[in-house]
Amino acid sequence: xxxxxxxxxxxxxxxxxxxxxxxxxxxxxxxxxxxxxxxxxxxxxxxxxxxxxxxxxxxxxxxxxxxxxxxxxxxxxxxxxxxxxxxxxxxxxxxxxxxxxxxxxxxxxxxxxxxxxxxxxxxxxxxxxxxxxxxxxxxxxxxxxxxxxxxxxxxxxxxxxxxxxxxxxxxxxxxxxxxxxxxxxxxxxxxxxxxxxxxxxxxxx
Length: 205
Description:
By secondary structure, the protein is of the alpha/beta class. The chain has helices at residues 3-9, 64-77, 91-103, 125-142, 153-164, and strands at 34-40, 84-87, 110-111, 147-151, 175-177, 182-187, 193-198, 200-202. The chain has one domain: 3-Layer(aba) Sandwich (Rossmann fold). The protein has five helices and eight strands; from the N terminus they run αβαβαβαβαββββ. α2 runs parallel beside α3 and α4 (125-142) packs across α5.
């Protein structure tokens, strides 16, 4: 079933978040602060195998559960009155972003290759954090209001850790959002980032 058909036919249970508790989300307390919702893609075929073949494009698609997760998250974010969404280029991210933009009646999400989780020439975590953060900062500068960023769990932790001033070591490199999970950050008028809420887990070595 396509995501479009699923949106038209599904009976959503938005109070329940599959894989963990959906953190409470809310709008900023002042007109000049901005909320940024970092969303991990829904479950994809790649998440269900131990050693996925990178050449198998079918593994990049959302599973039935992943589509439902994306729809649930899209429904929960709709009251936030988002103004724009950006996505990593992978299909599982773009389909998750589609659910969000459809629920919020927004134009299609823009796509930025810098949000990909693929490592270029064995790049370091610092380099991935740097390019991902730069993509988010460009997006913030080009938009107004509250927005969503759809990418991969590891990229979300690298980017948000950089924004929050955390060192990229220890548990920071082990944290990961549940599929279609949300990490909510707020940007003040003074340019300070704070963590509002997150439904993440810590991945064991």
